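Below is a filled-in request sheet from our internal design queue. Each sheet records the structural input a requester submitted and the sequence that came back. We keep these sheets so that new team members can see what a complete request looks like end to end.

REQUESTER: design group, bay 2
PRIORITY: normal
MODE: inverse folding
CHAIN LENGTH: 81
BACKBONE (tokenized):
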């Protein structure tokens, strides 16, 4: 599944709300999100527009690993549902 190429940090934060990620704090242009779903997990999202594709890929791989999803399943869940 192809990653979205024009996704902003704020759009990613909204999409991650589907997995119960909530903003815990923000320092400068970095937003820290936390979820308690499947155990506590933290992820840092840059508030850039757009997020660089390699950065987005790394964030999604980390989230997919925590939730025991395939990365493609996570992309469908977040952006195509």
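RETURNED SEQUENCE:
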């Amino acid at each position: 599944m192809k990653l979205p190429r024009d996704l902003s940090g704020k759009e990613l934060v909204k999409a991650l709300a589907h997995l119960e990620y909530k903003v815990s704090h923000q320092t400068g242009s970095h937003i820290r999100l936390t979820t308690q779903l499947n155990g506590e997990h933290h992820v840092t999202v840059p508030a850039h527009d757009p997020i660089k594709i390699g950065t987005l890929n790394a964030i999604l791989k980390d989230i997919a690993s925590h939730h025991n999803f395939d990365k493609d399943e996570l992309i469908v869940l977040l952006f195509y549902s």
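SHEET NOTES:
- The chain is about 40% helix and 20% strand.
- The chain has one domain: 9-79.
FILED BY: M.R.
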